[in-house]
Amino acid sequence: MRHALVLLAALSLAAQAPNPAPVLFDEAFFGGDRRLILEACADKARSLKPKDAKYLAECGRAYLAALDKPKAQGAFKDAETREPKDGQVLRLIALAWLKHGYKTEALEGYEKIVQRDPKNKEAITQAAVDLAEVGLVNEAERYMGVLAALEKDDWARFLMFGRALLVAGQRKKAATWFARAAALKPNEEKLFLEISRAFAETQSLM
Amino acid sequence: MRAALCCLFALPLLSQALDEAAFKADPRHLAGACADRARLLRPKDAKMLAEYGRAFLVAGERAKAEECFQQARTESPRDADVHRLIAVGWLRGGHRAEAMKAIADMQLADPKAKNVFTRAAVNLQDLGLAKEADPLMERAWNIDPSDWQNCVAFGQACLRKSRREAAAKWFSRASQAKPQEERMWNAIALAYADNGADFH
Lengths: 206, 200
Description:
heterodimer, A: mainly alpha, Serine Threonine Protein Phosphatase 5, Tetratricopeptide repeat, B: mainly alpha, 74% helix, globular
């Protein structure tokens, strides 16, 4: 009887409480507060695709940008629980931490790739590129070492890493990787086009 | 005969190794040297020719650049993306008049190429030519208002240049085009998270 009364009281309170107004995603909304936009779009993406670990990881990144760390951690945890051995998911989580200045969490996240999905060349290369682009060159080179141990002739990935080093202003280190790629594939026009493009695009940085 | 002569001239260049020291040289010179080498390996792809032209412009070799651009146009005159790449080459080299001529050629070559128009609008926006970018993007949108990816791409470019109002307009159009598309919401969230920076 007492429980029934409590339930009735709760129901009547719930009926009185105003429902939160649905978000109207119009031009005014997108021109408004950045944090609100981030939260609302991430919430919407998450509600439409709640079981996809990659989306969860990316929503977490949006929550971090909106300075909602608990919500971000919740999304990352969900993502990691769903796909604990998927290097791409682990990399997205680590990248989110890295982009928002959480270096320790980021490095722990990248390390999980090597521990749990040690043959994922794509995720390992991306980890190296992410780290190089923010200037963590020694850490980045360690991941490239892991990659080279898996596949010593992967010129396309060496090229990608050289480009990241060039973007980060590490000309000498970039030269090492470009030379390594060129030695592996001296007659590949895409390689030389990519290198010329990298130098053309980064000329203002030098 | 001419092709055989070209091959003969190319052989010494192709046989030269590019070692670590070579990649530490002057970046402008390197851009040109790599473009030279790439061009000798496969001179028939119009898009690649357009990109070699861009590298030659960076290297300060305008004559070689113009030659590449002309070859690219001859190879694929109806491919709007080739004209866009030529425009980008001119734009990055600071040659605005030539760039706008290529943008005009692009629209004539394929008047329905909405994705190429969007990419060109993004290029113009990124290089600070918002007034030229906006009408081009409107044209792309008029061809297909349901294309949310193009709206998001341009909105993202607007954010990169801190054009919040313009970005809001394009994100709003994207959300109206496909409100149940989770990739769209995710892309908008990440665009605001990174202030429009490209995500890979």
